[in-house]
Amino acid sequence: MGSLNIESIATEDQSEESKKVAQMRALVEAQDPSAKEADDKALRRFLRARDHDIDKASAMFLKYLKWRRSAIPNGYISDEEVKNELSQDKLYMQGFDKTGRPLLVLYGGRHYYSKREMNEFKRYVIYCLEKICAGMPEGHEKFICISDLKGWGYSNCDIRAYLAGLDILQNYYPERLGKVVLINVPSIFMKAWKIVYPFIDKHTREKIVFVDDKDLKTVLLNDIDESQLPDVYGGKLQLVSIAD
């Protein structure tokens, strides 16, 4: 009986959410006809990001549509537009976690403030997120990321870039991040973390996990099968650059 009640509540919640998505669609399409091209899943992500407040979610989505026309005028970011960022081999994408979410590996120690040009970096963030979303398996909307900070130091610290990337992720790709696992975290990184943390919204904060070195493989294997875990962490998959 208990399981039936839970299923009934879940069905009611989904029905209520569907009604709100329909109301949201009417609002955004009235203000921006291009909203008709968005599917219900996209609207639902924005709705959830604003705790099912239709007005706030609609405003967020309309801002996104306007931003997208400006930030991605051709509908995509080419490799040529982010060639400096790609040459640094910071991000890899292959494999899936146990729930089927795509797996990314980000090397924070390969990002250098001195090599970064802000507009290109923003394009790079968009380029990566667009690739991730385009390769999302059927039935999934989120990805999981291993953020490896081995070797991270002052030359890698780039608060402006971190905040710019966070802004793009939170405001224009809401409910895409499933989990971030930070590993090999040097104590020096926590100084930068204290500056960035206040800018991370509550939904994103809940998805961030710091892992002690001694627990690394155990924690990773809780989420990722050995066959899908990169070989550098004791698994069986080789890393593949996001450009490939």
TrEMBL record:
Region (Disordered): 1-24
Lineage: superkingdom: Eukaryota
Pfam family, one: CRAL_TRIO
PROSITE patterns recorded: CRAL_TRIO (PS50191)
CDD domains on file: SEC14
InterPro entries attached to this UniProt entry: CRAL-TRIO_dom (IPR001251), CRAL-TRIO_dom_sf (IPR036865), CRAL/TRIO_N_dom (IPR011074), CRAL/TRIO_N_dom_sf (IPR036273)
Biased composition regions of type Polar residues, renumbered to the chain: 1-12
Ranges of residues in domain CRAL-TRIO: 79-241
Listed PANTHER family: BINDING PROTEIN, PUTATIVE-RELATED, OS03G0850700 PROTEIN
Protein's name according to its UniProt entry: Sec14p-like phosphatidylinositol transfer family protein
